[in-house]
Design a protein that fits this description.
about 70% helix, 60s Ribosomal Protein L30, Chain: A, OmpA-like_sf, coiled coil, alpha+beta, membrane
Length: about 350
């Protein structure tokens, strides 16, 4: 029996070491990815803040050099004061020596005493000369250090001025491009306005002089009754005749407008605020206005007007040009508007 239990233990599989190895590998992979992410963020942050750090470092160096220059100037001034004092003392000693020499020349009896004083004053003068020479040497060294500091400050200021000049040049180029773009846009608008004026002038000449066809601002307005039957969106015979004239004017104008002007003729359909009645083809004024604008566009395309130069839009009753509910007001709001514009 003991032998059977031992055999069963030998047949059992221990999965724990494999699980530990897999878990360790997963943790190492996660740590590697986190390390790569942190390094990437660090490099990106350094790239972004690099320029600001350079400018801040330059400004800090200028401030430090300015402080050093101020300290050097203060030390130089102290040495200058010391030198002036030594020179004054040296001048007094020279005067005293001259006086004693004169006394020595005039009184031989006191020659030994005078000689002693002269020797002492000579030694003092020599000592003061040595101190003055050391002070002059220190002043010369300070002057050299000040010159070096000024050169460093000038170089840093030159670098800052070059950076500012580069930024100013970039800003000037951007402003110049903006001005050029505005001028180009203004020229395009002026050209389009000129062709729009010509277009309206030709339409005024070729279309019938009727009260229900008029110009409102930058749009040419047809009353719906000129083109469509009541509640319908199919051009009637009179409407097709008017659209034939319109198509001829568009084709003539299209040959004159330069290719670089991306113009379109927008056809807008509008209705009055009266709800549709009965069981017609259209559920509301949105559908009716859109269908009428589309019908005009399709007819113009059938007469040769390029489809890429036409746009149809329906506005329902929500863009009235007259307020009120009188028959005349409602008739004014039922309309088709044509507008020559840029895409």
């Amino acid at each position: 029996m003991a032998l059977g239990r031992n055999r069963r233990r030998e047949r059992g599989v221990d999965y724990w070491p494999g699980f530990v190895d897999a878990l360790s590998t997963l943790l190492l992979a996660i740590m590697f990815l986190l390390t790569v992410f942190v390094i990437a963020q660090f490099i990106l942050g350094r790239e972004i803040s690099g320029r600001d750090e350079v400018l801040n470092r330059l400004n800090s160096q200028i401030a430090e050099l300015t402080q050093l220059l101020a300290l050097e100037k203060s030390g130089n001034q102290d040495l200058q004061d010391t030198l002036a004092s030594l020179q004054s003392s040296l001048s007094s000693s020279e005067s005293e020596r001259t006086r004693l020499q004169q006394l020595l020349d005039s009184g031989a009896g006191s020659a030994d005493v005078a000689n002693q004083k002269v020797g002492r004053l000579t030694d003092e003068l020599d000592a003061e000369r040595q101190v003055s020479a050391r002070a002059m040497s220190q002043i010369e060294l300070l002057n050299q250090q000040i010159a070096a500091l000024r050169a460093q400050i000038a170089a840093i200021e030159g670098a800052l001025q070059a950076s500012e000049a580069k930024d100013q040049a970039s800003q000037a180029r951007i402003a110049d491009l903006g001005r050029r773009l505005n001028v180009a846009l203004a020229q395009r608008v002026q050209e389009l306005n000129r062709y729009r004026s010509d277009f309206f002038g030709r339409l005024r000449e070729i279309l019938s002089d009727r009260e229900n066809i008029r110009i409102v601002g930058d749009r040419f307005v047809f009353q719906s009754e000129v083109l469509f039957p009541v509640g319908g969106a199919d051009l009637d015979a009179a409407g097709q005749g008017e659209m034939d004239k319109l198509a001829a004017a568009i084709l003539e104008l299209a040959q004159e407008i330069p290719e670089e002007i991306n113009w379109v003729l927008r056809v807008d359909g509008h209705t009055d605020a009266s709800p549709l009645t009965g069981t017609g083809r259209y559920r509301d004024n949105w559908e009716l206005s859109s269908a009428r604008a589309t019908s005009v566009v399709k007819y113009l395309i059938s007469r040769g007007v390029p489809a890429n130069r036409l746009v149809a839009a329906g506005f329902g009753e929500f863009q009235p040009i007259a307020e009120g509910d009188t028959p005349d007001t409602l008739a004014q709001n039922r309309r088709i508007e044509l507008k020559l514009t840029e895409r």
